[in-house]
Amino acid sequence: MTVVLTAPAGASGTAPSGFPPEIAAALSSGRLDDAERMAASVLARVADPALFNLLGVVRIARGAPREARRPLIHAEVLAPQAAPPALNLALILLAQGADAPARRWARRAVLLDPGLPDAQATAASAERANGNLDHAERAVRRAIALAPSVSEFLANAGNLWMDRERLDEARRFFRRALAASPGSGNPRFQLACIDLCEGKLARGWAEYEARFVPAALTKRRPFPQPEWQGQALASGALLVWGEQGLGDEIVFATLLGDVLKRAPAAAIECDPRLTAILARSFPGLSAYPRQTPPHPALLSSSISHQIALGSLPRLLRPDVASFAGRQAALRPDPRRLGASRAWLASLGDGLKVGIAWRSVRRNAASQRIHTRLDDWEPILRTPGVVFVNLQYDDCRDELREAAERFGVRVHQHPDLDLFDDLEGALAYSSLLDLAISTGTTACAFPAAAGIETWILTTAVDYLAMGQERYLWYARTRCFVRQQGGDWLPTTRTVADTLAARAAGASK
Question: What is the mean pLDDT of the chain?
Answer without folding.
Answer: 90
